[in-house]
What does this fold into?
Amino acid sequence: MKKLLLFLHINSKILTGFIVGGFLGYLHWFYFGCYWGNYLLSAECWVNCAVGAIFGGFVASLFNIDSI
It folds into this structure.
């Protein structure tokens, strides 16, 4: 349990970026999603949430200078 709390404390900014990115991906799907055509990012909710979470984690890791 101690190792888990240490992991969460060290990576809190990146995990927050994952959560915010997933939420923004959901909002993109909800407001701009279309169900026709071949545009993959707007067809499925889980794709938008996953791509948003990955992108949010990446952007947050750029600003996570503490762990270097």
User: Anything to note?
Assistant: The chain has one domain: 13-62. The mean pLDDT is 86. Residues 10 and 67 are 7 Å apart (CA to CA).
